[in-house]
Amino acid sequence: MQHIKQYVEQNKQRLLDELFDLLRLASVSADPKYKPEVLKTADYVAARLRDAGADNVEICQTAGYPIVYGEKIIDPSKPTVLVYGHYDVQPPDPLELWKTPPFEPTVRDGKIYARGACDDKGQFYMHVKAFELMMQTNTLPCNIKFMIEGEEEVGSSNLGIFVKANKEKLKADVVLISDTSMISMEHPSLETGLRGLSYLEVEVTGPNRDLHSGVYGGAVANPITILAQMIATLHDENNHITIPGFYNDVVPLTEAERAALNSAPYDEAEYKKDLDVTELWGEKGYSTFERTGTRPTLELNGIWGGYIGEGAKTVLPSKANAKISMRLVPNQTSEAITKLFTDHFLSIAPPYVKVKVTPHHGGEPAVTPTDSVAYRAAQKAIAESFGKEPIPTRGGGSIPIVALFEAELGLKTVLMGFGLDSDALHSPNEKYDIYNYYKGIETIPLFHKYFAELSE
User: Where is the Peptidase M20 dimerisation domain (predicted)?
Assistant: First the structure.
C-alpha cells in the first residue's frame, strides 16, 4: 500500500491536470453538434491508455460513436479483468444554473465541478491511472483489458453489436466498473445490484394546428390538460404504480435482506436538507433505501407543449409531449414493461385526442453475487484502503450493459464506484471530490492484487 500512496503523492498534480484536460472535452453524445468533441475525446482516451502502457490500443468504429479498446496481457494463464467505462456525458443544460462553465473544470472546497466529473470521466480515468501506477511500479498482478465507450448516456445501442462480434477479444474473468456511488467516504460501500430501465416518449395530439384559446377554448380538448390528467392516473394515493401487471414479476426482498439494506447509515433530516425539501415522497410501506434501490419506479423526465417563450401567447396547442422513465427490478424486463405501459397508456386515452407512445431505449436489472472471488477481492481492497469493511447496497441507477456482459460474455460484474449520491449526476454543477479521485486510484490496484491472489 505504501508504494501506491507514494506514487499518487508524487504525481498528484499531473493526475489532476490530465483529468481536467479530459473534462474540458464536451463529449455530449445526445446532441449531434458535439460530434467533433466526442471524437476528440475518444482520441484522448486512446492516447492516455497508450501512455499508461496498454498494448493493442484501438479506436473501434461503430454505427455511432467509437469504443476505445486497450489491453495488457502479462501472462495468459493469469486471470483477466475487463474494465468498462464511458467517455460520453449528459447534456449540460440548463446552462444558466451552472455556477461555473460545465466544460471548464473548477475546484471549490476540494471538489471538481464539471460535466462528467463523476459520471463517468473522473471514475473511469481512475482505472487508467491505477493501471499506469501498476505498470510504473512493476506491480500489475493480472491481465487487464479496457473497453471505454461513447454512447452510454444514449442507451449504448451499438455496444451489444460490438460485444457480440468481439467475444474473443473481450474474453475475461470479471468486469470491473466504477460508474456507481458509495454511501460516503466515512461509510464505504459496494453496490450489489442495479435497476433496469424502460425509457419512452408519449405524444398527445388534439386539433390539427395550434388554436386561438379564446375562439376555440372550451370546445376542443387541450392536449396539455389531457396529458397531465393521464399522467396523474399513473400513481395511486399510496404512490403505487397503477399499470395493470406492472408488479407481477417483481421479486420482493426477504425480511433479512430488508434488514441488511436498512442497516446502512441514513440521516433523513440531512437527506432532506441536501435536497431542500420538507418531506420525502415515495411508495408507501418502504424505506428510502428500498424505494431508491429495490422498488420499481415511474418518473416524468420532461413535459412540454404550447407556448413557453417570453410574454403571453393565448394558444390552445395542437400537441403535448412527455418523456418517461421506469426503473426496473428483478425479474422485470424492459421489453415487457414497455409493452405494459404502452398498452395501458393507449387504453386510458379519451376519444377526443390521439396518443402515440415511442420507446427510446431500455436495459435489464442486474444483481451481482456477493460470494464470488471478484466481490471478495473488492471487499478486501476497500477494507484495506479505507480501514473498514464496505457495506453492501443496491444502486438505484441503471447500467444496462451489466446484463449484456452476463448474457453475451458469461461474466459477472463488480460495481466499485467512488462517487456520492450528492454529486449531482445529470444535473447542473455536477461534481467529484478530489479526495475520491485519488482514493480510487489508490484502491483499484488493491482489487487487482487480491483478485489475482484469490484466483490462484
Answer: 193-352
pLDDT band for position 83 (50/70/90)? very high
322 and 312 within one domain: yes
- Spatial CA neighbour of 176 closest among 33, 107, 79: 79
The answer to whether 104 and 24 have CB atoms below 8 angstroms apart is yes
Residue 241's pLDDT band, with cuts at 50, 70 and 90, is very high
One domain, residues 238 and 116: no
| Pair 357, 373 in one domain | no
Assess if residue 134 is contained within a domain: yes
Residues annotated as catalytic (active site), given as ranges: 88, 152
How confident is the model over 231-236, as a mean pLDDT?
A: 98
Q: Is residue 274 part of a domain?
A: no
What is the pTM assigned to this prediction?
0.84
The CATH code of the domain that includes 153 is: 3.40.630.10
**In angstroms, rounded to a whole number, what is the distance separating the alpha carbons of residues 75 and 196?**
36
Cell numbers given for 122: 473522473
Q: Is residue 214 part of a domain?
A: yes
Instruction: Work out how many domains the chain is built from and give that number.
Output: 2
Domain that holds residue 41: 1-194+365-455
